[in-house]
Every structure is written in structure tokens, then in C-alpha cells.
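Let us practice reading a record.
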Amino acid sequence: MKTQRQQTGRAGEEEACLYLQRLGHTILDRNWRASHLETDIVSLDKTGLHFVEVKTRKAPVAADPAVNVDCRKMQRMVRAAQRYLHDPGRKLPDVEVFFDVITVVIDGDEITLEYYPQAFIPTYV
């Protein structure tokens, strides 16, 4: 049985997938895992391949859920994307890679969704 938090997260991811599909994305994977790395959504559209982090909260929220995508989370998203892209069994087109964030706030029957395409660009030193 899923906890209330897991149910909320799953509902937010479902809304995020529907939103991306309305934008023309094809959902390739949901909750993809490799060891301790995880990606909420991997989608493909005409611009490229998107690794999407979904942050879902129930109202009232003290701050924008996007603030929870900190530097450490970004690094984990990049490592997960690298693992995903280098899977020898995966056939992916040669396209640009993007790191997006979607926030979902659920207030009863009302859902507020914010999409942050290209939320960050990985940099290497």
C-alpha cells in the first residue's frame, strides 16, 4: 500500500506526463532507476530528449516546490541522464539533452502546474 506522500507524488507525475504529452512530448520512461539514481520522466519532443524532475506538494505550500531542486539534486539528475544515455541496449536519436523541472501543487480538486523547460544547464569544471 502506498503512503499518502507516494500517492501525491504519483498524482503529480501523472499530471506532468499528461501536460508534456499535450505539448507534443513522447514519454519514453517514468521513474527510471539505475542503482541509487532515478529520473521521474524521460521524454522526447522535436527539440530533444528531456530529463524531467517533478516536485509535487499539497496546498498550502510555504515555498515554490522548485526550490527543492538544489545543486545536489541537479548533479544526481545529470548522473542519471549519463547512465540512461550510455545504456548500450538503448537506441536513442542523436539529439540535444535538456534538464527540466515541473512543479505541481494540489489543492483539493485544483491542480497548479508550472513547467520550467531547460531549468538548468550542467557545467563541468
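A brief commentary: The chain has one domain: 4-120.
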